[in-house]
Amino acid sequence: MKLLIVASGDFFSDYGGGQVYVKNLVDELVDQGLKPALATPGDPSASLRYYRNCSVFAFSDAALNPGSGEITALLQKVKPDLVHAHGAKRAFAEACRAAGIPCIVTAHHGGILCPAGTLLNHRDRICMIRASHKDCLPCVLKNIRAGIFSWHVIRILPLAMRLRLGMFLRKKAFIPYVTPVGTSSLSIQERKDDWDAIFSNASLLVAPSRAIAGSMIRNGAPDHKVKIITHGIVLPDKIDRDADKKVEDDFRDCIRFFYVGRICYVKGLHVLLEAFSHIRGNAELHIIGGAGNKAEKRYMQRMRKKYNKNRNVIWYDKIEKEKVNALISRLDVMVHPAIYLEVFGLTIAEALALGKPVVATRCGGAEEQIESGRNGLLVEPNEAQVLTEAMQMFVDRAVDIEKMSQAGPDSVKSINEHASELTGLYKQLVAKTS
């Protein structure tokens, strides 16, 4: 079986859960004897690259434009029996359909169908309705700096006029504020069109949680095309903690909470910091992660400035994966405060695998992994007081940490199991089209 895997971003980057997941999946497939070809955004005129003896083909941004023909040419060159698309989903789904090649599409975030990108509405609640111009407009505008203030003006314009305005502005030089606001309705229509094309042309849609599966079906995907397959992770090596014993001794009477992930608004770090500020007793909060763009950096700066006097909040920059695991091994309880729909939450699985209880919001992916009271606690999203109460329980009853730690590793699916599950799916789809 000749398999082509399309990366969710630059395959050689480790920024973002989607990229990390795809690379781990490829590693495991290679270990299991399957040698997939890989496709990644890049310069198609550059020399062919390789990863673990797998050919890595590049496609340009222009390849995503309808009628470019670049993806079709790539498929003709690779001649795959099946394509698994984690990125460039519409382009590959359409090209595969035309070529008679089965194509699986995996959702890694809500942006696969949400015009605002995160399935978080303008009231900071997880979106539970079908995408529409009326309901999505305030969410899209809120993502633009000061854009929400234009909502009352933009919404009274006829939709046809808004779409024409968007197409006109797209052809002109970018004007801050004006261009993103003026093209907001066009961006909603484009995302709706993209999603319709994805679910219409893909052979199968893989949803890592029931939450994103529900959103897919709610937004038009046929039930029979959606399959829930939770992610697997690379299980951690045993951590040698002797070298850090002195650090542990220093923290012996302190409950050390930690957060791992991107520093951005939808991850709910502001809710976590507010909740932690009301904790009574000896506790620390370790924040591990970095910001990837200007908006995230501004957000991080605001949070650090607001809580800079709290010496029990310890900030780390983005650090190497191996060092993250060594650090986490010395901490006690992970907190995952996402306020948007988290499709899975790889960091939750990684913390559980290290034997760390997780306090998480009911954000979608967390419910697939956490059984409240057994390996962690589940709370409602965007509720700082409720999060404080959950964290306070561990401060008041530290004995529960050890009890829940025992159940953590049993809750995690390995990348080996996950890859085997996908391989079985690949074989089924290829057999159907033979």
Quick gist of this model?
The chain is α/β, with parallel strands linked by helices and about 425 residues long. The protein has 18 helices and 14 strands.
For the secondary structure, the number of strands is 14
Structural class: alpha/beta
DSSP helix fraction: 40-55%
CATH topology of the largest domain: Rossmann fold
Count up the domains.
3
Supply Rg: 23 Å
CATH superfamily label of the largest domain: Glycogen Phosphorylase B
Our count of helices gives 18
Low-confidence stretches: 239-251
Mean of all residue-level pLDDT scores: 94
What general outline do the C-alpha atoms trace?
Answer: globular
Task: Sketch the major β-sheet.
Answer: 8 strands, mixed
What would CATH call the architecture of the largest domain? 3-Layer(aba) Sandwich
Quaternary structure state of the chains depicted: single chain
- The N- and C-terminal alpha carbons lie at a distance of 11 Å
Strand-residue proportion: 5-15%
Strand order of the largest sheet: 3-4-2-1-5-6-7-8
For the record, what CATH class of the largest domain applies? Alpha Beta
